[in-house]
Specification:
Layout (H helix, E strand, L loop, with lengths): L6 E4 L5 H12 L3 E6 L3 H13 L3 E6 L5 H12 L6 E4 L14 H29 L2 E6 L2 H5 L5 H21 L4 E8 L5 H6 L2 H7 L8 H12 L10 E4 L5
Helix pairs in contact: 1-9, 3-4, 4-6
Length: about 240
């Protein structure tokens, strides 16, 4: 239970990947702060399941696209003490080839994934640094590394998140805080299942299958623990061999 006594925020915890990461961190002893915006009932059910399994969890519902709402939510979270693990998982797809992409599609994807990272991490960072222990995990994507047709906005947002990961890691390493990014490939979820059939996955992925949310969560759990204290500034792929 290496995270006993640590408070951990997972943004976008209502989805398959966010909920798997939250369950893993709760299993490792963390007190979970489960964020959602559009589907608060999903994190309420997740919190209940974590508590029923002997863990500790509460819900925080706010819109990451709002400076005011996110700032107020961070103030409320800090009333309970520093947040020492931040998992910036929230993100959205709004796909279109660039010639046909509307401005709102570009800005929405950038706003949630990249600006959302700033809006959450910046106010929570100084209290974390004062404890001289912290873990920041940014959930990126294989699209940021290899590109993907129809996802110039998403690849740009996640690519910027990778660069922010590397720069921030240099600023906080001396205070016992690590910053890493996880870049999943095709991970089984309702969204992925709708976009990729089994035959296409076998063609694209050398491992010939989609990954599971739990496989990504296993890496997140390791990076959040004490054993990963010397790993920082890295972008680590979980993708079955995709390039």
């Amino acid at each position: 239970m290496s995270l006993e006594g640590k408070r951990a925020l997972v943004t976008g915890a209502s989805g398959a990947l966010g909920s798997a990461i939250a369950r893993r961190l709760a299993r490792d002893g963390a007190t979970l702060l489960l964020h959602a915006n559009g589907r608060p009932e999903a994190v309420e059910q997740l919190a209940a399941a974590i508590v029923a399994a002997g863990g500790k969890a509460e819900c925080v519902v706010f819109d990451l696209r709002s400076e005011e709402a996110t700032g107020a939510a961070c103030e409320r979270m800090l009333e309970g003490g520093p947040v020492q693990v931040i998992v910036n998982n929230a993100g959205v797809h709004d796909d279109a080839v660039l010639p046909g992409m509307r401005a709102e599609q570009w800005h929405r994807v950038i706003d949630v994934s990249l600006n959302g990272f700033f809006r959450v991490t910046q106010p929570l960072l100084l209290p974390m640094l004062r404890t001289r222990w912290g873990r920041i995990l940014n959930i990126s994507s294989v699209a940021a590394l290899a590109g993907n047709r129809g996802q110039v906005n998403y690849a740009a947002a996640k690519g910027a998140l990778n660069s922010a990961t590397k720069a921030l890691s240099l600023e906080v390493a001396a205070r016992g805080v690590t910053v890493n990014a996880i870049a999943p490939g095709i991970i089984a979820s309702p969204m992925a299942d709708a976009a990729f059939d089994a035959d296409l996955i076998r063609q694209m992925v050398p491992a010939r299958r989609a990954g599971t949310p739990e496989e990504v969560a296993a890496l997140a759990g390791f990076l959040a623990g004490d054993e990963a204290a010397y790993i920082t500034g890295q972008v680590i792929s979980v993708n079955g061999g995709m390039y």
